[in-house]
TrEMBL record:
The keyword Repeat does not apply. It comes from the Eukaryota. Residues 74-182 form the FAD-binding FR-type domain. One of its GO terms (molecular function) is cytochrome-b5 reductase activity, acting on NADH. Coiled coil: none annotated. Its EC number is 1.6.2.2. SUPFAM superfamilies: Ferredoxin reductase-like, C-terminal NADP-linked domain, Riboflavin synthase domain-like. FAD binds at residues 131-133, 148, 150, 156-158, 199. It is found in: Mitochondrion. Belongs to the flavoprotein pyridine nucleotide cytochrome reductase family. This is NADH-cytochrome b5 reductase. Keywords: FAD, Flavoprotein, Membrane, Mitochondrion, NAD, Oxidoreductase, Transmembrane, Transmembrane helix.
Length: 326
């Protein structure tokens, strides 16, 4: 168990050092998490939807040689919960396992959807709560994926996942393609994330940093309510310290007395000073709660297309082709 926490400390706050201590569930077994293998809930999604047979567009999966793929874009697959750990006052870590000879089957940057039963409708048919999640574990990892989830009192899916015990299953379908990242697609990528919106950003960051042929510069503005709410800060700091092409700036609404980062919501001044300016060789990625999205770029359209660009990015001269909303 001590080995688990030494490895995990590089990817999550040090409060994880006591995450499993005091848990007496005999079904709980230790597991190893390599640096960079945590996945968090995809940010920017606040509403939930009920579907009997959801009509969604999924990433096509062509047959490929090599490891088999665990996900299926046309079928709900059950993944077994292996273990959990408390990370902070409202965040928990979940590891789900599958055949160790298979990889999950996600590209950068894609996500999957999960569902949980939520009673029955007037016709006696099962209703479901559906949520998208963005894994950030290594796409080549086999046999597991990890989710880092903020559990909210009114969060129907997060409450469902938090209620699972080792051995219980979660239904997953996907992948769903979002931004199809390719190395050196832009000279400079700017990122604006709020809360759990860090998830797709970290997925792209890690893809860039592990490829020595990818020369993309990355600048991240990461906003949270308080310093304690910053997810994966130690991991981000370590990545920035080791990679000169990654710059990270934090800002919080409620700073503590010893806080040395930015204060307040992400502003025009922060964007001007911290992100690349409007250019054909620039791409700004945005992901966060609805209020932040409206302030920064405008939210996505009701049909989940990118929608019209607005907010401070439009005011600063960025165009729709320069911005991608997760």
């Amino acid at each position: 168990m001590a080995h688990f926490f030494r490895r995990l400390a590089k990817a999550a706050p040090i409060t994880l050092a006591n995450a499993f201590r005091g848990q007496s569930n005999s079904n709980t077994s230790s597991f190893k998490i390599p640096f960079g293998a945590i996945a968090a809930v995809g940010g920017g999604i606040s509403a939930f939807y009920y579907f009997q047979s959801p009509t969604l567009v999924f990433l096509d999966q062509a047959p490929e040689e090599g490891p088999k793929v665990a996900l299926n874009p046309n079928k709900w697959i059950e993944f077994k919960l292996q273990d959990t750990a408390k990370v902070s006052h409202n965040t928990r870590l979940f590891r789900f396992s599958f055949d160790p000879n298979e990889k999950l089957g996600l590209d950068v940057a894609s996500c999957f959807i999960t569902r949980a039963p939520l009673g029955q409708d007037s016709d006696g048919k099962t209703k479901y709560v559906i949520r998208p999640y963005t894994p950030i574990s290594d796409p080549e990892a086999k046999g597991f994926f990890d989710l880092l989830i903020k559990v909210y009192p009114e969060g129907k899916m997060s409450q469902h996942i938090a209620s699972l015990k080792p051995g219980d299953v979660l239904e997953v379908k996907g992948p769903i393609e979002k931004l199809r990242y390719t190395p050196n697609m832009k000279k400079h990528i700017g990122m604006i994330a709020g809360g759990t919106g860090i998830t797709p950003m970290l997925q792209v960051i890690e893809a860039i940093l592990k490829n020595p042929d990818d020369k993309t510069q990355v600048s991240l503005l990461y906003g949270n309510v308080s310093p304690d709410d910053i997810l994966l800060k130690q991991k981000l700091d370590a990545l920035a310290a080791a990679n000169p092409n990654l710059k990270v700036f934090y800002t919080v609404d409620n700073p503590t007395k010893d806080w040395r980062g930015g204060k307040g919501i992400i502003s025009k001044d922060m964007v001007v000073k911290g992100l690349p300016g409007p250019s054909d060789d620039t791409l700004i990625l945005v992901c966060g709660p609805p209020g932040m999205m409206e302030h920064i770029s405008g939210d996505k359209a009701k049909d989940y297309t990118q929608g019209e660009l607005s907010g401070i990015l439009k005011e600063l001269g960025y165009t729709e082709s320069m911005v991608y909303k997760f």
